[in-house]
Design goal:
Elements: H1 18-40, H2 44-48, E1 51-57, E2 60-61, H3 62-75, E3 79-94, E4 97-110, E5 114-125, E6 131-138
Parallel strand pairs: 1-6
Antiparallel strand pairs: 1-2, 3-4, 4-5, 5-6
Length: 139
């Protein structure tokens, strides 16, 4: 689709077996579903556990982002988040920290707000093997 086809520039390409690609995708879909469920259930502390201490978005660092989410989520009677049209891109990362870009359409609805956006989540694996969101963008 014009304007929607991802273009990837890389110095090298590493091919993996189709079975491994399928297993990797399923693991990421599960990770994203857990993130989505936590937000939808207003389990704010578990939801925030998916974010890195060096997270940033829209000029907010993690502390301000977390305070905002705690305030907003506690005031809601319900939150419903659905995600679809998911694209996953593995990046080599910096040093020994692999990165993945998860790009998807997000339908958000609460008792007083509704929006549809295209979200970009940048995940990085830390030295302990945990994947954390370090950047997020909504378009």
């Amino acid at each position: 689709t014009l304007g929607m086809t991802p273009v990837i520039l890389s110095d090298k390409v590493e091919w993996i077996a189709p079975e491994q690609a399928k297993a990797d995708r399923e693991a990421w879909l599960k990770r994203l579903e857990t993130w989505r469920e936590r937000w939808s259930k207003r389990d704010t502390e578990s939801y925030l556990a998916d974010y890195s201490p060096d997270f940033s978005a829209d000029g907010l660092g993690f502390a301000d982002f977390a305070a905002h989410k705690r305030r907003v989520n506690s005031s809601k009677k319900f939150i419903k988040v659905d995600i679809r049209d998911i694209n996953l891109f593995k990046y080599p990362g910096v040093g020994d920290e692999p990165m993945v870009l998860a790009e998807f359409s997000q339908d958000y609805q609460s008792d007083n707000y509704k929006t549809v956006s295209r979200k970009l989540q940048f995940w990085r694996q830390d030295k302990e093997g945990n994947w954390k969101i370090f950047r997020e963008e909504n378009h």
